[in-house]
Each structure stands twice: as structure tokens, then as C-alpha cells.
From TrEMBL:
GO molecular function, one term: Wnt receptor activity
Lineage: Eukaryota, Metazoa, Chordata, Craniata, Vertebrata
LDL-receptor class B repeat windows: 1-43, 44-87
Any one of the GO CC terms: plasma membrane
PANTHER family: EGF-LIKE DOMAIN-CONTAINING PROTEIN, VITELLOGENIN RECEPTOR-LIKE PROTEIN-RELATED-RELATED
UniProt-recorded name of the protein: LRP1B protein
InterPro entries: 6-blade_b-propeller_TolB-like, Cueball_EGF_LRP_Nidogen, LDLR_classB_rpt
Organism: Ibidorhyncha struthersii
GO BP, sorted A to Z: canonical Wnt signaling pathway
Source organism, top-level taxon: Eukaryota
């Protein structure tokens, strides 16, 4: 699944398959300007920052169990969001500090460091990476990902895929080649 935010005409948090199909709104009310998103892959939760509402919220992958982690002027102008263990990590774009927020109670907010110019944050640690299983876009014996000439996108699950073509090409009637 691909998770993303949009704050155009109607602000929302959405998800879809990697090929763009099955687009679903998971949050579309009481939301104004969602700008950063992080996933808890183990428990299947989506966290986001709303910079207009000065809040960090969470919901499960189906849009249920929504609650506010923290809502405070203390967390104004946040950009970027990452999860590791019990904490959310984010960047305050006003003073360029890295903040750590307890994701279960929201009361424990600490400034960890200051940076010259940061707009995004990522956690790289082996435990945060899920194991990769075989999938429909693996390279075939001819060197083509999922049997697709140009681009292979996972579909509704890891066993299904959709082929796409680069700009200027159209998909052939076989659903794999590009012309």
C-alpha cells in the first residue's frame, strides 16, 4: 500500500495500491493541512502532522481508532515525521530542532538537537525494516521486472502486479510490452 496526504480542496489522508488502484480516504474530517506522514508497519497505524491544527494524530490503516497524540503550540511548524520504538521524531522548522515525542501519551516532548537546515527526518535501523518476501515484480529470467518491459507496480497484494510504460510509450495488448 501507498499512504499519502493531500490538503487541496479537501484535506485528507489516503491510501491506495502501489499501481494507484483502490484509492481510499482513511481520514477526511477534522483535518486541515496534513504535511508529514509516518507508518507503524507492525501495528498498522498511520501517524500524521497537521501544521494548521498544530497536532499529531494517529489512525489505523482502515481509518478507525483515531486519536490525537498531541495538540499544542509547542509543536508548531513541524515537518517530517518518523517512528522508532515508543517515539515519534520530527523537525521544528522554526528553530530547526529535532523533537522526540512519546507516541503513546504525547506528554514527553524533548528537543534533541539543532540542525542548520532540515525539512525531513528518517530513522534507519535494522529493526524498522520489514523482511522482503518474493513478490510479483521480481526480475524474470529475461531481466524484466515482473515480466514488464518498463515498469512493474505491485497491485492489490504482493502476488499481483500491473505493468506500466515510461512517458511517450503505450502499453501493448499483452499488458507487458510497451510501444
Amino acid at each position: 500500500k501507498l499512504f499519502f496526504t493531500d490538503y487541496g480542496n479537501a484535506a485528507k489522508v489516503e491510501r491506495c495500491d502501489m499501481d494507484g488502484m483502490n484509492r481510499t480516504w482513511i481520514v477526511d474530517s477534522k483535518i486541515e493541512q496534513p504535511t508529514a506522514l509516518a507508518l507503524d508497519l507492525v501495528n498498522k497505524y498511520v501517524y500524521w502532522v497537521d501544521v494548521y491544527l498544530d497536532s499529531v494524530e494517529v489512525v489505523d490503516y482502515q481509518g478507525r481508532k483515531r486519536h490525537t497524540i498531541i495538540k499544542s503550540r509547542q509543536i508548531r511548524h513541524l515537518c517530517g515525521l518518523a517512528i522508532f520504538e515508543n517515539y515519534l521524531y520530527t523537525v521544528n522548522s522554526d528553530n530547526l530542532s529535532i523533537l522526540r515525542i512519546n507516541r503513546y501519551n504525547g506528554t514527553d516532548v524533548q528537543s534533541l538537537a539543532r540542525l542548520d537546515n532540515a525539512k525531513e527526518i528518517r530513522v534507519y535501523q535494522k529493526r524498522t525494516q520489514t523482511a522482503v518476501r518474493s513478490h510479483a515484480c521480481e526480475v524474470d529470467p529475461y531481466g524484466m521486472p515482473g515480466g514488464c518491459l518498463h515498469i512493474c507496480l505491485l497491485s492489490s497484494n504482493y502476488k499481483a502486479r500491473t505493468c506500466r510504460c515510461r512517458t511517450g510509450f503505450i502499453l501493448g495488448s499483452d499488458g507487458r510490452s510497451c510501444k
